[in-house]
Amino acid sequence: MSQSRRPVIAGNWKMNCLRADGLALAEAVAAQAGQVDCDLVICPPATLLHSVHELVGETALGLGAQDCHYKDSGAFTGNISPTMIKDAGCSYVILGHSERREYHGETDADVQAKAKAAQQEDLVAIICVGETEAQRDAGDTMTVISEQIKGSIPTDSTSENTVIAYEPVWAIGTGRTASPEEAQEVHQHIRKELASALGEDFAAATRILYGGSMKPGNASDLLAQADIDGGLIGGASLNSADFLAIANAVSK
Length: 252
Ligand code: PGA
Prior knowledge:
The chain has 252 residues and is of the alpha/beta class. It has a single domain (8-251), classed as Alpha-Beta Barrel (TIM Barrel), CATH 3.20.20.70. The chain contains eleven helices and eight strands. The protein has helices at 19-30, 49-56, 82-87, 98-103, 108-120, 133-137, 141-152, 180-198, 200-205, 216-223, 240-249, and strands at residues 8-12, 39-43, 62-65, 92-95, 124-129, 162-166, 207-211, 230-233. The protein has an eight-stranded parallel beta barrel, surrounded by six helices. Helix 1 (19-30) packs parallel to helix 2 and helix 1 (19-30) runs parallel beside helix 11 (240-249). The site of 2-phosphoglycolic acid has 13 residues, from strand 8.
């Protein structure tokens, strides 16, 4: 972590939590949100956004969605738009998660269009990139990451409306975390690519999160790396004590 970039710890709840559990989880996290040294964000499923916002909207806890369409409205059955997400009280949206890329065929161009639409709505786009195990084994990690960075990030992005999440696909939900050194190597590469695509100032100020089996036990070592500015947390964000322990690891 660097002193100049405020860390972000974001919880990606994925397709989990019914109303009662989701509200209880959000309330427990919100109760500590003012006490941590980072921007704390939760991204519940779309069904809970309005009610979570009503419950914790006045606290320091940020609220995000897990995807959005690139249009504001129209005949797109099953989709939700950046305007709707904003209307539900969100300030963030996760885009290009590997589960969206894999199960919904999202391309870099799709992710870029969605990010542009989200940024126009004053949402912070959390743009995910990451290589598969086969790509890593083939020695293609840096090439894959470079392509995703160039293709997925709108060229007029700012460091205020953009957060990058590096999530090696082989580490997501598997319990297999990238070692701090492996993660740092890719984060450093991402920052270099950001500099060549959007300039040195953008690269220096933009937060790059690590995601993939981040837990209370490995968070401080990952967060201690120079180019790791926080975490995008899946499984461990469903338990308020674990999620808050990761947020507290930021200041250690
Ligand atoms: P995980 O998920 O923490 O459960 O590995 C991370 C993510 O997919 O964002």
